[in-house]
Specification:
alpha+beta; 4-stranded antiparallel β-sheet
Amino acid sequence: MAPQPLTPEETEQALAALPHWTTDGDSVSRTYSLAGHLPAAAMAMHIAAIQEELNHHSDMTIGYNKLVVTVNTHSVGGRITELDVALARRIEQIAAGHGAE
């Protein structure tokens, strides 16, 4: 079954359990602060491995000590689905291990 877009209310409910994740209505995103560029790159690689496992990919921007993750579901016109929330949850599970704040 194809993923279905979440309503704005469903998105807000899902994000209530994901502190620091925000939405612009079409995607969910979070900016992580890390100790430097290599920790940010390492976390990005870990996220890439999770994305391959889930077959669901986000946009990531790596700065010196920042990592920005933005995700939506392209197959439903770039809207937010449960796939995006599931990916955000998985990212949150690994963030502390990378020293991300």
